[in-house]
Amino acid sequence: MAAALTNQLHALVNNMFATGLLDEQFQQLQMLQDSSAPDFVSEVVTLFCDDGERIIGELARQLDQPNVDFDRVDSFAHQLKGSSASVGAQQVKNTCIQFREFCQQRSRDGCLKTLDLVRTEFYDLRNKFQVMLQLEKQIQACYPKH
Amino acid sequence: MGDEYLAEPEDEVAPSMWPENIGDKHQKQFKMEKLGKGQDALKDVRFQEKPSSVDFQRLMELANSEKGVSQMQYFVKHWEYKRANTARLLKEQIGFLCQQRKEIEQKKQQILEEQHFQDESYYAVKRQVPILDEVYKDEWKRPSKKSDDLCHNQEIKIDAEYDSISYWKERAMQLEKTLEASFQRERSLEEKLEENIKNLQSHTPVEEFSGMLQRADYFLHLVLQSAPIVIAHQDTDLRYRFIFNHFPTLADEDVIGKTDYEILSGEGIEEMNNVKKEVMASGIPTKREFIFNTPLFGAKTFVTYIEPVFSKSGETIGVNYVAMDITDQVKRREKMADIRVREAVQKAKETELSRSLHITEETMRAKQMLATMSHEIRSPLSGVLSMAEILATTKLDKEQYQLLEVMLSSGDLVLQLINDILDLSKVESGAMKLESTTFRPREVVKHVLQTAAASLKKELTLEGCIGDDVPVEVTGDVLRIRQILTNLISNAVKFTHEGKVGINLHVLDKQPPGCRIEGGQLHMKAHSASSVTAAEHSSASPRNCDKDTLGCSNHEDACNTGIPPNNNFGEHDGGEEAVWLRCDVYDTGIGIPEKSLPLLFKRYMQASTDHARKYGGTGLGLAICKQLVELMGGTLNVVSKENEGSTFSFILPCKIPVKEDHSDDPDVMPSSHGDFTTSDIEGSFLFKPQARPCLLSSGVSVMNNKFIGCNLMSYHPPSILENHKLFSNGFASAEDNSANSTSTASCQSNGPSTRSTDEEQLDNAMVIDLNRQAESISSSQGGTTSVSGPNIHEEKGPCKVLEDKSLHKKSKCSPSSNKTKILLVEDNKVNIMVAKSMLEQLGHGIDIVNNGMQAIHAVQQCQYDIILMDVHMPEMDGLQATKFIRSFENTGCWDTSVKPEHDQMISSSALSSDCACIRKQGKRVPIIAMTANSFAESAEECLAAGMDSYISKPVNFQNIKECLQRYLPSQ
Asked: So what's the ipTM on this one?
């Protein structure tokens, strides 16, 4: 049971690496998780997901306003970029870089288009993270029985 | 001469076109000679010019030349034609005159008859008598007609009454008068005619020629008057017979009859004369450019046409030449050529530049790639090696242990290679920072030799000689100096099979010429060079000179970038003295072929591929040494003779610390002062081959030996080992030699000896490092090198603790007294979480604040060992915060905008004496930027704001660990 789940988890994570969703920074997180901090990855990922959702909402709200404050938008994008870089969410990070370029150009259309992309990518990633955390929980749940 | 060419086409028009009055004006300047038609004709020619301008005797001779003859023939023909023409005209004139005469006779007759008739018939004649009117009307002789007309138009006025007797009388008398006048006119005309005829006869061809020539002369003169031309004729002896020079600098008298040599002197004369002679000899005209530089008319260029002149019989009788001043043109031409050359050079340069730019870019990229790759390889390798080391401490059987040993040594080799690459790229990219510590050069030399001796596998003598004038203590980056020395020594040992390897250290009595030390911080100290090395010293000094400028600039670099962490240093700048230390590492090895010398310090280059195969190694060692030496402001040179040995010499500027520095450091100084008489003053060391077995067999643990053995196999410079040891903070540090930890494990009880300040720790760490090594080997030597016991024990503490940690890399229970304090300034929650987790795993205490303002407050509250600062933050960004912190460190007071509340300050200093103490010293806290590598955050900006370095986000174990290793010196 646990082995199958573990395989599944590995397959999922490997797939996320292979498709470029994640980069080696995520491995750093995995390295940080040990007996002293058993839920570290989960904590970070959850924080990232919550934070990301908030920022994306914030971005959408900012861009919706008649006079877009691009500096503000940019600083939100910067935050999201920082967070995604820290957890190794490569795809989201790259899109954030793109997004910030549009911010620099003061291009609302560009920003909106990239925001859509970021959102799609972010939710896709979040779903996968959730599956991943789910699997981890299940695996951990399995262990005591063995 | 020359007129013959010009005269020919012109003579047809010349007579009618030439202005009559031009002759006088130009008479004097005009020196054109005249050619007669033949020898006889010339006798009669009237020369109007002064005879001095032309040699007329010569002219006779010239007339005999072929050209002269043809010229004469032409003149004769022309004269004959003219004479015939004149004769015809005269005949016509005579005809007319005859006719006129006839008519006049007729008229006279008629008038007489009429008179007679009128007398009788009293016929009144009112009609005027225009006697010659019909004749003159269409005649050619206009002027004379006019006067005649005047006569005839006179009214005949008669006062008497018409038809009276008196009237007719009067009239008869008047007519008589008219008739008389008419006769007179006739006579005068006849006279004129006769005169004309006479004139005609006196018009000889000679006169004609003279006139023609004169006119040609005038014409030529008009054409030539402003031409920068010299026309001349010279005879067979090259004496001037004629010269036309529009801008004469000499009177003609000075020229005619003389040669060029007699007139001029200087450049170009000889050449021109040679060409003239050549022309005369060959008989072929030529055109040449001559460059003259004579006192008479300065530097000028003439293009000269030289042609030979032949006599009738075909002999050469001289040369004509026409020279034109083209100095300006030549200048212009040269300028053009110059410009063209420059243009070409420029273009070539540009191409070269763009090519080298391209190459540089490529190289940079390749270097970056290499550095990145090395990084990438090092982190997993570190993991492998540390695991292997831990494995080595577990229970293993002999075979397993041997396998593990091989594994470790191979791993060390790879790690060493990677470290070399990283070192090199660090130095090259300017990221290498120098640490300034006080150290004892004698000990450094001794320890390097001891280390080499300990791992020696050959029958070699290792010796060290230190000049008496070398200060007991100097300030410099001891780790790098050791790295250099060790590298050179291990190289020397590697390539030496018998004989000796040694180090000479002495003070350079003269600072290298051209190397100025800024601000007078370093003073030259007048030490006499030790006698042992004086010869070498002088022999190598020319080489030093070559690189002085380089050394100088690097030195400034070093001073600018390297030293600052230790602020004591700065405070005592004024009182500090500096010396140039010269260190020679010599051997009696295989030497280096001369052709390989230039390649020696290049990366990945070895003297030959054979050597690489035979001796191994990467070829990076010397490149690193050179870079390091230059970074410290010195120079590294080599003198070598094949099969006799090599001497690598480097000179370094070192400051001599002021003794008072250490008066507040009671732990170290008293003991070291006490040692002065023993090991510190010791000027030479000798490690004989026979000492080796005893070294190995004595008290050092087997394991220790084995590890040293490994190091030797990999040519692992011990100083690098120590470098990492000192700075390692305990996480997966492969460099940590477990041997050392075991060997010092017994000292654990001395562990947490308290360190009041970082400054002290720095010093101690250095001393410990030296002492530890001294101890491990001196004990094996039977205590010949005396380092006082208590000293070792006291200072073993901190290093022990570190090593302890390295063994239990992930345990977070490191002693709190030694725990470094890190301030993390970051606003992103996720980033904070990750970074915090990493830092905690690395065993560091961490405070977290969310923006620059908070960071400043935190710094005001407490002393941190290092600050990791995000750049982009709300409220106050990292750059701004860094500037404030740096400003405080420099001036001792906070900018008003961020000034802490007064009581807070007091409480903080009261609370932690540590902080207060350190603050007094104005310690500079390392600030590391965490950059997102985006457009808004450039590394340059970070450094400019006062940050020490930067790590790119996202932070990972590798970059954070390296950064901490570098900037937490006591770790």
From this structure: 0.82
